[in-house]
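S.,

As promised, the 7,8-dihydro-7,7-dimethyl-6-hydroxypterin run. Input:
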Amino acid sequence: MISYIGIGSNLGDSKQTIRSALQNLNAHSSIVLESHSHFYQSKPHGPQDQPDYLNAVAKINTSLSPLHLLHALQAIENEHDRVRTKHWGPRTLDLDILVYEGQTLNTDHLTIPHPYMRERPFVIHPMYEISPDFVFDDGQSLAELVTLSPKDELNKLEPIDVL
Ligand code: ROI
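Predicted complex:
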């Protein structure tokens, strides 16, 4: 199944952390990394009293169920010594399931599609870069969201070798 993963970091060496997280995804026996976006630097959404973020989006192919995928992502977060002191506070690594092919889910642990993704430029623009034709199950296209979403908040970094 195709799934898109949002990746964020704003503590430590974020570029190295995201690069390593992409490698961890690809190294998982039930995950194939299909593609990933450039890395984008952005101001924090929500609480402003934290460092700028580095964000990227990965497209994966996986045989894991959404819940098993969530657990695999949490294991990768933990490998990166994720410290999370407060809700919406700074973190070394954040991996979010954005969408999972053919699934809508609304549980305490997991909501798919990700409830805030459509209003977040740091998700919309990187995802559009790798899947410009993507359309949500309700018919809204990523292309339309991109026209509504300010891109000037994002600073696209030079490509780096990941794999
Ligand atoms: N802001 C940005 N720019 N990038 C993120 O990944 C991010 N993640 C979050 C909050 C705190 C909402 N803000 C963010 O969880």
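The beta strands are 2-9, 31-36, 40-42, 53-62, 94-100, 105-106, 111-112, 154-156. Residues 14-27 form the longest helix (14 residues).

- D.
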